[in-house]
Design goal:
It is a single chain. The chain has about 270 residues and is an all-alpha fold. It folds into 2 domains: about 190 residues, no CATH class; about 80 residues, no CATH class. About 75% of the residues lie in helices and about 5% in strands. The chain has 13 helices and 2 strands. A two-stranded parallel sheet has the order 1-2. It is flat.
Amino acid sequence: MAESIYPGIDDERQDDEGKPEGKEMSFFEHLEELRWRIVRMLIGIVIGTIVCWIFIDFLVDGVLLRPVTHLNATLTQGQQPMHLQNLKPFGQLFLYMEVAIVGGGILSLPNLLYQLWAFIAPGLMPKERKYVRSIVFFSTFCFLAGVVFAYFVMLPYALQFFAGFGSTTIQNNIAVNEYMSFVVSVLLAAGVVFELPMVSWFLSKIGILKPEFMRRYRRHSIVAIFLIAAALTPGTDPVSQILLAIPLVVLYEVSILVSVWAWKGRRKNESPAQ
């Protein structure tokens, strides 16, 4: 039997999709594989959405609306309560559906990342493909860590800023879909930016990114970080932007250390062959 041109990956294709081992895929076969990867991603999202719909009342009342209820219960002098209101017919129905779909996407994140990397892996070197499962695990961990940070740190401070800013004559009556859009945007933005160390590790492992490069352009990166934070946070709230920019600066410094660690391991693996 011919040796596989994609060790490990072709074995998976043969098991899952019946591809002959060692056969190089044509352009249309790559498209077919991409189609099935997308189908598996969508199946994972649908399953995650169904699970989230089962617990939709808890997700809406106990998770997403909890920052507002906690804020209204702990108001200090000079702060106004925030009142959420539905302004559209069937607004709550569509809101619940949106929450279930977004929650389903987050719940199926490991499957999404695995299908993505499994499609990309054949184009990588064998020593690079062995990190796919580790990348999926740590990418999921970093994303969820960003979501947790945004929920317990960014959102409370941002809502306190909203409640204490402006005239007390103006009531804070906010459309619930605008509030949900703000919350989901902050959570997803924080999850994405917390992927920076993982991206740094992978690029360093394959030799694209070097810690010297990151140190040389540190000042430029800090400016870019604040611009990115301003673009990722909805509206013009400076508190949310700063709360997102500060951990991103810290993550950049952590990424430099991760890159150094990755290059040490890379050099250690290459030294016996030299």
